[in-house]
Amino acid sequence: MKLHLRFISILFMSFLVVIFTSYIISKLENINKLALNSKNLAVESVYRNVQGDFKTDSQTIYNFFKNDTREKKTISLEFGENEYWHLIKIRNLRSVLSEYVYLFDNPMLDEIDIYEIKAGIPTLVKRLGDNRINKKREMALPSIAVSLQKQQQKELLIRTYSLGTPHLPVALFESNGFNRYKNMLYLLWGSIVGIVFVMTAYNLILFLGVHDKLYILYVGYIISFLMVLSFVHGFGIYLLPISFYQHIGNNIISVYYLLGIFLLLFSYYFLHFNNKEQLVIQRSVKGLTIILFVFGVYATTQSEYEAAKPFFLMQLFIYILCLIMLFQRIRKNKSWGTLYIISWLPLFVGSAVGTLLLQGQLEYGFWTRHAAFFGVVFEMTLISMALAERLRVNKAEILYEATHDKIFKLANIAKLEFCINQTPKLAKNKYSVILIELDEVDNFTTIDKNQEQIAFINSFVSDIQRYFSSYLHVIDVDNDSTIRKVCLVREGLFAITITSSDEALLKTTIKEFCKLQKLNNSTTAQLYKMHFVIGAATKESNDFSLTDIVNQAQQAINIANSKKLDFWIFNELDKFNQNRRVEIATELQKAIDNKELIIYHQPKLGVDKLEVIGSEILVRWEHSELGEISPSEFVPIAKDTGLISSLTEWVIDTSCQNLSKLIKEFDPNYHVAINISVSDLHLSQFLAMVQKSLDTYRIAAKHLTFEFTDLKFENLDNNIKKTIIGLKRKGYRISVDALKTPLSNLGFVFNGLVSEIKLDCREIQNIEATQGNTTVIRQLVSLTNTNGIDVVGIGIDSLDSENMMLELPCNIVQGFKYCEPLPFHMYINWLNTNAR
Hints:
Layout: H1 2-32, E1 41-49, H2 58-67, E2 82-92, E3 98-104, E4 111-118, E5 121-128, H3 136-140, E6 143-148, E7 153-162, E8 170-174, H4 175-210, H5 213-232, H6 242-250, H7 252-270, H8 279-299, H9 304-331, H10 335-358, H11 366-369, H12 371-403, E9 411-412, H13 413-421, H14 424-428, E10 432-441, H15 452-471, E11 487-490, E12 493-498, H16 503-514, E13 518-521, E14 526-538, H17 546-562, E15 567-569, H18 572-593, E16 598-606, E17 611-623, E18 627-629, H19 631-641, H20 644-665, E19 671-676, H21 686-697, E20 704-708, H22 718-729, E21 733-737, E22 756-760, H23 761-771, H24 775-786, E23 790-794, H25 799-807, E24 812-813, E25 822-823, H26 824-834
Parallel strand pairs: 9-11, 14-15, 17-19, 19-20, 20-21, 21-22, 22-23, 23-24
Antiparallel strand pairs: 1-2, 2-7, 3-6, 3-8, 4-5, 4-7, 10-12, 10-14, 11-12, 13-14, 16-17, 16-24, 16-25, 17-18
């Protein structure tokens, strides 16, 4: 129904446009008919190109015309310093006195001298041309009035001089007809000036609103085009002071260069080529713009015909480059790109007609004279439509980017919230949110990040949509996508919303889905083992927003992970725990601001002499009312609430402060290890933040080790990889927990990025107890030692565990056998007592 209404609306608007255009054309055609023809009186025009040194007098020329009966009505177009003489014979066939006006319709001619032949002698009666100061009307519309008695004949000898096109279009009007024609031209000129003024104001407002330089370039483009038209048609004399008008007229080619620059830059920005992915186009446009500017400045030092020669070649390059950009955009189905290239058609046609007219190859008339004028009007109209369409598409793209994931093209949580809010009945009723967190996929490193992984994820979410839609009523989130019901909360976390709050139904459905631990991916034709965890929460009252329900579902996932379950449904008891999380988050912010957290150190010893070479940084929090709060509780809360950046910054800065004292008072080579999460590296200023602390306490990067326990290198995005590589290149040490890093991801350990690996003796003991041997671990340690990477044995609390780690062998040890974690002041005392 909507499509039918839109079609009818377009059809109706098209009908109105056709009617209005037909009316305008009919009115203009009446103006065209004002020019007289041979049915009214006899007109004889003879054109002859005079060769020589421009010193031939008018009498000699007239005698030449009088004795030469040949007639040559066209002259070749030659850019240069040219002088032409024209003889016009005119006879009144009427039996009454008649008043006529000759219009010499090329206001760009430098000089027009008009002689009336009296008794065979040319007498100068008028001097026109844009290099001469006359009345503004005569400069805009060079003309002369002719009064003829009945059957009277007159001859006019006309001399033209120009450094540009020498063509002299001539039109003859009755006196009243010329006044009507002149008034219509004033109306047309005023219209184009008014249109440009309105469009300039409108685009300046848009620029101030969106700060897109495209609108400034468009303003420059239409103003420079207006300047060109104002000189070609002569109405510029009404817009500018006479002296300035003549100065610009003498340098009109520089204005053409300016127009070319604005056309090129407007096309460049309009078609979205101003990005780093289009380096060839970017450099071409930049280079051609500089060349045009240089030639434009150079043109001010040359005569018009000399300056025009290189411009024709430059114009060709402009059009070629613009067309290349246009066709590239059309290939990407950019509708506004299509409108833009259509807008060029009337301009090309009008310019071609105007050029042929100035060359004398087309008969002069109202339509041919104003073809370029109307071409520009139509072009500006179509470009405005293209700009409006581009603005509409850009808004749609911005909205799409705000509501969809950039890589996987899935709707995000903002899109889900919008859909719920747009459905009042749903927003007021109960509904449930199910989150599916994709934790790990075996052999995932074989999937190409840019292609096969995207196809893999799309296949996975298609299974989610297909399965849950079969048993539950799932809300549509994106009707324009094949994945209509699933949205992406963040990478690896997907959400669906159902209209049911039946916990038993949710539990049964989710439980069956959790049995799907394998997915046959058609793109790679391989079987991937998957592990995902599901959390669900139900909106019980209007006191909770979608964000609250999603947070509860996320909390359910955290509970499932802590209990090592496949899924969890958020319940009343969890709400109590959630309240504790909120309280901890609030108090944590205060603790960071008030420096209430405490840094602990646990020493790391080199096995050669069992001497302290550094320490691991641990954070403890003793709250006045909540008591001791474990890092395993407040660190995840910090990640979920966005406090992790503040926490990490405080830990790094305080650790560097401690480290500075340890280097000065204990060991110049002392280093500390700080536990950080991959999520910390999402901070855009992470490297700068660390460097600031090092600079403050004058510490070299080599003294700082960053320990990662959740590093899956192959699954990281490029920005995180670059940050890790940046850390290594600046001299920081990188440490990973070998037993918590998937074996498929350990390849990057040996590529020079990792300085040490950590092995927990308790986990090794567990592996030995369950699997019978630790061969794989010993092989890993051997490879690590071969590559010059330190192996740190942690969790050593007895002689037996120490011997086991030394046999691997580890070259650095840490654990309660040597020292428990201590606050910094106590750690300093321990060092002074035990490590001197």
